[in-house]
Amino acid sequence: MPALDFFYEFASTYSYIAAMRIAPLAKTAGVTVRWQPFLLGPIFKAQGWDTSPFNLYPAKGRYMVRDCERQCADLRLTFRLPEPFPQNSLVAARVALVGLEQGWGEDFSRAVYRTEFSEGGNIGDAAVIAGVVRALGHDSTAVLARAQSDAIKGKLRAETEEAQRLGIFGAPSFIAAGELFWGNDRLEQALEFARRS
Amino acid sequence: MPALDFFYEFASTYSYIAAMRIAPLAKTAGVTVRWQPFLLGPIFKAQGWDTSPFNLYPAKGRYMVRDCERQCADLRLTFRLPEPFPQNSLVAARVALVGLEQGWGEDFSRAVYRTEFSEGGNIGDAAVIAGVVRALGHDSTAVLARAQSDAIKGKLRAETEEAQRLGIFGAPSFIAAGELFWGNDRLEQALEFARRS
Lengths: 197, 197
Prior knowledge:
Two copies of one chain form a homodimer.
Chain A: E1 3-8, H1 13-29, E2 32-37, H2 41-46, H3 53-56, H4 58-74, H5 90-102, H6 105-118, H7 126-135, H8 140-147, H9 150-165, E3 173-176, E4 179-182, H10 187-196
Parallel strand pairs in A: 1-2
Antiparallel strand pairs in A: 1-3, 3-4
Helix pairs in contact in A: 1-6, 1-10, 5-6, 5-8, 5-9, 7-8
């Protein structure tokens, strides 16, 4: 089965929209999705940014909120910008890697996005992440301990370095047939490239 | 008839793609398009950029070229990045305003984009622009003189200030039903907003 790498950042608004759309579209296209949480922070830092470009460039930030509202309205999703924005996504990304090892990473990722961008919850708070893990029926104490292990910390670092090596500069990004596709708007095209490869 | 404002910058790769797509889509939607050439330079300068973000952020620049190649392939358009990039678009924008006054501005705009991004020509050269004007059957000497008039210079400055006032931070941008839409990818949605307004 052809495959697509889905690089997503929990702090990213457009990654939220892509995460909510990708599973049924990939199923229809007959493409396997490899969910790859990573951190944009180090990539932004390398290009001289200490926060989201949506904060650095306020006109772009105001536009992004309205654009996400419109995109979400079309998809019958709620959109709410959490406070603060961007959220600290480190714990969520590590726990997602634990979940992906254990077979519940995709459901966890969607649940985190709903908490953050539909309900406006603070996913930087480990207690909020623990709540999401418990709601999925897992032992949050064991999962959060595993998330702080050297193995998982190293895995997230490796994913982020891999993203940088692939030329990724924003999220969501997709790799299909060896090519990079950037942004929720390119999901369909990336799936089509994967399907034909 | 509902209307859409189409803000485009001659140096912008994605404005090229939008300019080549907009007329038939607008016709189908029953929407009148108001072509509004403007300059992104002053807007970029105001946010601290002295060139295109595609030059400031090389990973984004490399991606943009490949993305434009793929988008153009789908549309059976050629894509070629001109040297230098971005091109100086001042003369082209002023001549477009003359053409729009005289009823040939849309054809001129498409012809300039073809020269620049399909053939890789240098549209910063007034002789190249004069050639485009002549190919459309107009007196290039008279048109270029009119393009250097205070009236046209002031009109381009006013368009650019209006773009900034509207919150425009990139090109192409569309205003439909009082809302801002950014990027070639939002053309269909903007037309739909205009149509329903």
